[in-house]
Structure formats: structure tokens, C-alpha cells
Specification:
Helix content is 77%, strand content 0%. This is TetR family transcriptional regulator.
Length: 228
């Protein structure tokens, strides 16, 4: 490698780091704007919170969908870390406690940051072609579905561990069960956010854990009978 090329590579690398830092700052400013203005935040609000223009924001993210995806990535990283940490810490107590801890971690984010959750789930800046029902070639993957899929896999792993600990081989059952629990929690959480009805997070966690675990216990028993 020539000296000139090496120097250029170092400059490019330095600018890459600068751009990543600036993107992180803009994402943080966007999250601040969401908390201040609500889930329906507009690009003018984002630009004002960032202390720059919409043109500069678009330069870093391409379009509104790019910014939305970057915010989702940040929220996903935090939520996934919290769910994993909660389930790992609770697992020595038992798999039921681990599932409960994962549900509570999900609900905790909603309780502490409801507007940010609404922003992520309701996709106010998400742009897809009209009539799109999936990801056509060239389309941006849906970050919400990606996050839900990853969390479903995490819960499925806990379920599989519980079944094996009971002497039951889960086969292909743990995966759909794990994703079903995530769908259950997400549906109930959305309703809780819209109509809380005075129910505390702890109470909702208990209800959802009881429902999920009662179903899982019955299905596990059925697996044992099938294996007998």
C-alpha cells in the first residue's frame, strides 16, 4: 500500500467515525424530540431539537424511513439488552420466573417511555410503497418485525430449556410458542397503553405470566403424553 493511499484510508476512517458520531447525536436528539412532542413528532421538530436543518438530517439518514430505522435500532438494542439481562438473572429461580422477567422488562419500557414506544410501533416516519405486504427486493426491512422476531427467539430458548429440564424434548414446538407469547404480550401492552384502566405494570405482568405459563404447562404435558 502506498503512503498516499494509506493517508487517504486514515482520513476516510476518521470521517467515518465522525459521521457515526453525528448520526448517534441526531438519533439522540430525535428521541428527545419524541419525548417532548409525542409519537407524532415531525421532521421540523427533529431538526429543531438537533440544532440543524432537515436537509442535514436527510444527508445522514437518506430519508424519514432511514431516521425511523435508526431510532428503532437504538430502542431495539436497549430493549433486547434489558430482556436478556432480566431473563438471565431470573433463570436460576426457574423458567417461569425468567418468562415473567422478560415480560416485565418489555412492559417497563412502555411504562417509562410511552411516546417512544408509540413512535416505534406506530411507524409515523415509516414509508413503504402503497399496497406493500412484505419486503420486496430493495425495500428496507421492518425494524419492528425484526425486533419482535429476535425477542420471540429469546423466549423460545427459555421455553426449550424448561422443557428439556423436565425431560421433554421440545422439537419444533418451542419456537412458535415463544413467538406466540411475544404476540400475546405486545397485544396486551398496546391495549394497556391505550386504556390503562388503573392496572399497574406488576399486575399486568402477573396476568400475562399466568396466562402464558398455564398454556405452556398444558402443552408441555401434551408433549410428554405424545412421547410416552
Amino acid at each position: 500500500m502506498s503512503f498516499v493511499k494509506a493517508a487517504r484510508d486514515r482520513r476516510d476512517s476518521r470521517w467515518d467515525a465522525h459521521r457515526e458520531q453525528r448520526r448517534a447525536e441526531l438519533v439522540a436528539a430525535t428521541i428527545g424530540a419524541i419525548r417532548e412532542h409525542g409519537a407524532g413528532v415531525g421532521m421540523d421538530d427533529v431538526a429543531a431539537a438537533s440544532g440543524t436543518s432537515k436537509t442535514v438530517v436527510y444527508r445522514h439518514f437518506g430519508d424519514r424511513t432511514g431516521l425511523y430505522t435508526a431510532v428503532c435500532d437504538q430502542v431495539a438494542a436497549v430493549l433486547l439488552d434489558q430482556v436478556r439481562r432480566a431473563t438471565d438473572e431470573a433463570l436460576p429461580t426457574g423458567p417461569r420466573a425468567a418468562v415473567s422477567a422478560g415480560i416485565d422488562a418489555y412492559l417497563r419500557l412502555i411504562e417509562s417511555d410511552p411516546e417512544l414506544y408509540r413512535f416505534v410501533v406506530h411507524r409515523p416516519l415509516w414509508v413503504q410503497p402503497t399496497g406493500s405486504r412484505g419486503e420486496a427486493p430493495g425495500e428496507t426491512p421492518d425494524p419492528v418485525n425484526d425486533l419482535v422476531s429476535v425477542i420471540g427467539d429469546e423466549i423460545a430458548a427459555v421455553i426449550a430449556q424448561r422443557l428439556r429440564g423436565s425431560g421433554v424434548e421440545p422439537g419444533d414446538a418451542a419456537r412458535p410458542w415463544g413467538h406466540a407469547i411475544v404476540g400475546l404480550v405486545r397485544g396486551a401492552a398496546d391495549d394497556w397503553l391505550l386504556r390503562p384502566g388503573g392496572m399497574t405494570r406488576d399486575r399486568l405482568t402477573t396476568h400475562l405470566t399466568d396466562l402464558a405459563w398455564s398454556g405452556l404447562s398444558g402443552l408441555a404435558s401434551q408433549l410428554q403424553e405424545d412421547d410416552a
